[in-house]
Amino acid sequence: xxxxxxxxxxxxxxxxxxxxxxxxxxxxxxxxxxxxxxxxxxxxxxxxxxxxxxxxxxxxxxxxxxxxxxxxxxxxxxxxxxxxxxxxxxxxxxxxxxxxxxxxxxxxxxxxxxxxxxxxxxxxxxxxxxxxxxxxxxxxxxxxxxxxxxxxxxxxxxxxxxxxxxxxxxxxxxxxxxxxxxxxxxxxxxxxxxxxxxxxxxxxxxxxxxxxxxxxxxxxxxxxxxxxxxxxxxxxxxxxxxxxxxxxxxxxxxxxxxxxxxxxxxxxxxxxxxxxxxxxxxxxxxxxxxxxxxxxxxxxxxxxxxxxxxxxxxxxxxxxxxxxxxxxxxxxxxxxxxxxxxxxxxxxxxxxxxxxxxxxxxxxxxxxxxxxxxxxxxxxxxxxxxxxxxxxxxxxxxxx
Length: 400
What we know:
With about 400 residues, the chain is α/β, with parallel strands linked by helices. The protein is built from 11 helices and 15 strands. It folds into 2 domains: about 120 residues, Rossmann fold (3-Layer(aba) Sandwich), CATH 3.40.50; about 230 residues, Dihydrodipicolinate Reductase, domain 2, CATH 3.30.360.10.
């Protein structure tokens, strides 16, 4: 059984996912639409896809079964609801939305339509998260009580180029996107292993000082001048986790942009840019190789022609030894992967959920728990670190 798919947005990231969706045996025809028609046409020609639609509205009016949204990060919420209400299954890039109201609207639409929604959060399959999830299931941590998740991606390492590509002449207004409104690479990596949810937060932001018009309140369409932010979350059942969202940082983001630490009463795990280890009361075990994806492509591979050079390392990783690839289609065995080996699993999660009518890993309720904590944290940072409660939409209902 296969379904047809419409790609919404033909930017740097969507091209890589379009290739994987097209190769998956559970997907049939693949179409593309973009506000710049020439980009959609180029992607279709380059990847041998089925065709284009002149607009998102035209795509939704067609008999396409599902849509995958790869538009600007602050636009996802309304587009997702529009797709679900038009009768389409929806895959969305992160974040889920930028407000509690938008998140609620998506959950309502999923519940009422019974259609599949999935947020493509890469940290769900980050090797560190996979390893911690397995260790937690085995009881190796004892009682987990503290964790850390960092998304340390410096603006100089690819973000300037990405915003210039997507934002046109007005790119500086959007490059000021608040770090805590893009929280899922850090929050999701923690909660993807630790099956709990955040109930309160206190956050501190750092006002940017470079003076280049980015993170300038007078330029920012978000009224944001914070380039770095730290949030401390309380979790249900006791315990806490801290996240860092850094856009000005002396750190090799191209080596590892997300990193994690987990501490329990019996064991702990820590990760740096190039080293990872498991620790217990007896000693330390180096797990670096177990979590290290093996490159499958050169950064100069022609399939990466849509991606800015500074971002290409994110798309050349294969899988890490901790990944279980047995569930994946063999068509993916020698294809590009990315974000520490997560892309293959995310595509397969969505395709499998649509074709079997089962809940995907990062369904609407999970996505809400990965996204809303950052939204509330940004508000806390704007209020000088005031501790604020985080609403929770609960677990996915049975039978949805």
